[in-house]
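Team,

Forwarding the record for the chain on the shared tracking sheet. I've put the sequence and predicted structure together so nobody has to dig through attachments.
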Amino acid sequence: MTAAQSVGRPYTIIGSADDDGWLDRRYQGIGASEIAVVLGESQWQSVLELYYKKTGEYEPEDEPENEWMFWGKALEDAIQTELANRAGVRIDASMIQPHLRSTQHRWALATPDAMTTAGEPIEAKNISWGYDPQEWAERIPEKYYLQTQQQMLVTGADRCLFGALLWGSRLIWEWVPRDEETIGRIVRAGSAFWSRVERRDPPLSDGHPGARKVLGRFATVDNEVELFEPEIEEMLSCWQNADADLKDLRAQVRRVEKQRDAAMDTIAQKMGSHRRAFTATGWSFRWETSKRNGYTVAPKEFETFKIKAPKAQ
């Protein structure tokens, strides 16, 4: 589909999956997979990294493709096809990984994995590690939720089809509805961040480890410079207070963990040679054998002790 064919829609098509020029155009806006960084919800990237990437002052080193990345790409088509099949929709063959720009918010970009024939974005993930059922219990993780909402911001769709293939053997999926409140947050944060990019006004660090990685790349002059304490007095005070609080919290965590583990060990002692136990009110106790896969370390089996509190009456 050409840009001319998208007339009347809230977006323009600025590229496609096989378009080499897309890499350059990524620097002309904020992608849906990047909005979590702007909102401080990304574990992978700092807002400072993203800012300096967009201004062209920082280019991260390319990571070599590993097995996980290879199979993620190789399984994309299969995941999307089965996802559409289970959701009972059809994929628009002309809209496979289209690169889209919002006509209202020019900084807002989106590259859904595919689009349905009804114009709804499809986002498919291949997840081989890091899946936490508790994190996914109420809804998909925030970083993915924000990605789907920006895709709906750009496309104007009322819902986004989201699916994840877990460990190559289980497909979970759901329709994510449009959330105007979250889209409002995205618009405000995205507009403010992009205004900084245009003004060349770097944001303050969000404390992400990646911030120091990019700032370290800028430190190329090997001599001392004087910093005037009145100019950094507030940050020095903030660091000192936070460092003291962190030390106290770590010590408190160690004390509480020892108390918890001592109580757990005492209960395990009461069980003696039994691997399972219970109480009249519904507590349950059990030994579980866990196995650690041998990727970068040797395989090893170890025992973990589980305690389950009774259900609330």
